[in-house]
Specification:
Blueprint (H helix, E strand, L loop, with lengths): L1 H12 L14 E6 L2 E10 L2 E12 L2 E5 L8 H12 L3 E5 L5 H4 L2 H6 L3 E5 H10 L6 E3 L4 E4 L2 E6 L11 E4 L4 E5 L18 H14 L5 E4 L8 H13 L2
Parallel strand pairs: 4-5, 5-6, 6-7, 11-12
Antiparallel strand pairs: 1-2, 2-3, 3-4, 8-9, 9-10, 10-11
Helix pairs in contact: 6-7
């Protein structure tokens, strides 16, 4: 009788119980220094939930975002969290290259009245690859000034992507590298689908020379302790076998 009941139960619920689907971790916000905060969202890459770092900066005229969330469910929570914490609205967003972990929220933020920017080269690649697009572009290295904040964009040449730029905040000696810079936690170069490793090695040296006084270096993924530029150069030498 027990065996009969067990067979009936198996027919009703199936022979096995499947594990719960892996969930994407929620938004994380970490204070870096002064008015600078790193915010991290997640998405799946090769079946694993991977953290993607972005930056926001408080100014007298509102908040500046560098790169958008990767996870679309966090587009609005980022805005809500910033307003709840600081009583300020986001007024400007700059994307550092065309991949979705940098651009996914551009059109959402544009619809919210936020001025969205990238380089002209990034816009061209967004169009080519079907990624979200900014409203405005710049065609050369550009200085932005917002509410007392000064930041400069710099295109060192091809690297992780053909259009990757870095952003420098001289007041804080902070270099936002995005995916051009690998975290010291990284054992490899990651996604190389649009990379040019040989050019990347040269581009890294340009950035290291130009921003040798950087106190903080923020990579696109994982932790930002240590010298990510030096580590990226090391990984590239290993990859290129030089």
């Amino acid at each position: 009788m027990r065996r009969f009941l067990k067979i009936i139960l198996m027919l009703l619920v199936g022979p096995t119980v499947l594990p719960a689907q892996q969930e994407i971790p929620p938004l994380e916000i970490a204070h870096l220094t002064g008015n600078f905060y790193v915010y991290t969202t997640y998405n799946f890459y090769d079946g694993q939930a991977v953290p993607s770092n972005s930056l926001y900066v408080l100014t007298d005229s509102g908040v500046v975002l560098i790169d958008t969330p990767w996870d679309s469910t966090q587009f609005q929570p980022v805005l809500d969290s910033i307003e709840a914490r600081h009583g300020k609205k986001v007024v400007l967003c700059i994307s550092t290259h065309f991949h979705a972990d940098r651009t996914a929220g551009l059109e959402y933020y544009r619809a919210k009245g936020i001025r969205t920017y990238s380089s002209k080269l990034t816009l061209d690649w967004c169009k080519k690859e079907g990624e979200k697009q900014p409203e405005f572009t710049f065609s050369k290295d550009t200085v932005f000034q917002v509410g007392g904040l000064r930041l400069e964009t710099y295109y060192p040449g091809e690297g992780h992507a053909p259009d990757n730029i870095v952003v420098w905040f001289g007041q804080a000696k902070l270099l936002y590298g995005g995916c051009f810079v690998k975290s010291v936690e990284s054992s490899g170069l990651g996604n190389l689908s649009h990379a040019n490793p040989a050019a990347w090695a040269k581009s890294v040296q340009k950035v290291r020379k130009k921003y040798r006084k950087a106190r903080y270096i923020i990579p696109g993924h994982f932790g930002w302790q240590g010298d990510g530029l030096r580590h990226t150069a090391k990984l590239l030498r290993k990859h290129l076998k030089i």
